[in-house]
Amino acid sequence: MYAVIETGGKQYTVKSGDKVKVEKLDVKEGDKVTFDKVLLVGGDTIKVGKPYLEDSKVEAKVLAQAKAKKVIVYKYKSKKNERKKKGHRQPYTLVEIENII
Predict the structure, then answer these.
(1) How many whole angstroms separate alpha carbon 37 and alpha carbon 85?
(2) What stretch of H or E contains 84?
(3) Per-domain boundaries in the chain
(4) Dihedral sign (CA 38, 39, 43, 45)
(5) What is the DSSP letter of 17?
(6) For position 31, what pLDDT does the model report?
(7) 3-state helix, strand, coil in the chain (%, to 5)
């Protein structure tokens, strides 16, 4: 059984036992999280929402609050002696899908 959920403006295809990096959620490590915005549930039969399924939800456990690898942004303009170097680390939440209801 699998589901398509929406969180943080992105859509994820998940199944029970998957570990997924989602946009940062305001919860502590070890807490449970419920995703209500379920777009599709598949298995033997497929249920599609308009846009969301009302009776379905996905339960997950928060494993970690972390930051991704650093991305370097380098701006350069030739003949102007203009250079800018910036780094950015995007925060994310690692969740493990436990149950699709």
Answers:
(1) 38
(2) strand 82-88
(3) 2-65+92-100
(4) positive
(5) T
(6) 98
(7) 0, 60, 40
Of 39, 8, 3, 10, nearest to 25 (Cα)?
Answer: 8
Tokens found for residue 71? 């991305």
One-letter amino acid at 83 equals R
pLDDT digits (tens, 9 = 90+) for 12-56: 999 999 999 999 999 999 999 999 999 999 999 999 999 999 999
d(CA 60, CA 75): 40
Q: 46-94, pLDDT tens digit by residue?
A: 999 999 999 999 999 999 999 999 999 999 999 999 999 999 999 999 9
Closest CA to 20 of 57, 68, 60, 56: 60
Cα 87–chain centre separation: 22
Q: How many other β-carbons are positioned within 10 Å of the β-carbon of residue 11? A: 12
Q: Give strand pairing partners of 84.
A: 75
Residue 16 token pair:
């029970």
